[in-house]
């Protein structure tokens, strides 16, 4: 793990419209190193999705900036993949699994042979090597989310952003998908920022966990997850250190819900 890949500097986001303004994010500053797996937790409405959209270049911050490998993000940057919670809306229903996974590779203008190679590797990696020709609506929710993950990794992103990707699947599927994400991360070394509202999931997956306060949002805590790199659903989750970390994060989230940051400094001469 070397060097900073993502640098989020003083990002503030105020939504304006219909005569009211909502300050979703007050001031977020943190970095993610190349190859790191960082989870982000925070109370509902803390601005987690807003943060990811700013990082993905889908929303412009009101102030501050997002820098990816030394370049300021001013629109969706090349080499970034996003997996959303709503798998049902993120895959094109009229395209087969193969068509969905290949689409960004075609946009990248990769030659056919390389596309086919990446397609096979990615579908095998998520355990869906035999469903190329199926349509998303013929698959279960967990399988559709695997296709979305396959599409993201086939693209060979510099950074993978995941926004509560497992919130809508059942508990057993969720555990399987968590293990899939960890093994893909360990195998491919792709830098990952994983947003979740689930503290246990954050501790299980992450090397670090950022705790956001309620809106207007700040980073309240940055916790190193000093669990062994080899994790499994039973022994890791029942270890004493896991319980300590989750207890600490739980207390921080409780604090986050009622935390009121100081008002931002007014610009000189402003009201
Ligand atoms: N397009 C928008 N226009 C106006 N306000 C918005 C918009 N999108 C989000 N907000 C507001 O910004 C705040 C943060 O929303 P956001 O969805 O980023 O939070 P979140 O932490 O992802 O929430 P959750 O955990 O419930 O998914 C909320 O108060 C929300 O109502």
Automatic annotation (TrEMBL):
<dbReference type="InterPro" id="IPR003439">
    <property type="entry name" value="ABC_transporter-like_ATP-bd"/>
</dbReference>
<keyword id="KW-0067">ATP-binding</keyword>
<dbReference type="GO" id="GO:0005524">
    <property type="term" value="F:ATP binding"/>
</dbReference>
<dbReference type="InterPro" id="IPR017871">
    <property type="entry name" value="ABC_transporter-like_CS"/>
</dbReference>
<protein>
    <submittedName>
        <fullName>ABC transporter</fullName>
    </submittedName>
</protein>
<dbReference type="Pfam" id="PF00005">
    <property type="entry name" value="ABC_tran"/>
</dbReference>
<keyword id="KW-0813">Transport</keyword>
<feature type="domain" description="ABC transporter">
    <location>
        <begin position="6"/>
        <end position="239"/>
    </location>
</feature>
<keyword id="KW-0547">Nucleotide-binding</keyword>
<dbReference type="InterPro" id="IPR027417">
    <property type="entry name" value="P-loop_NTPase"/>
</dbReference>
<dbReference type="GO" id="GO:0016887">
    <property type="term" value="F:ATP hydrolysis activity"/>
</dbReference>
<dbReference type="InterPro" id="IPR050166">
    <property type="entry name" value="ABC_transporter_ATP-bind"/>
</dbReference>
<dbReference type="InterPro" id="IPR003593">
    <property type="entry name" value="AAA+_ATPase"/>
</dbReference>
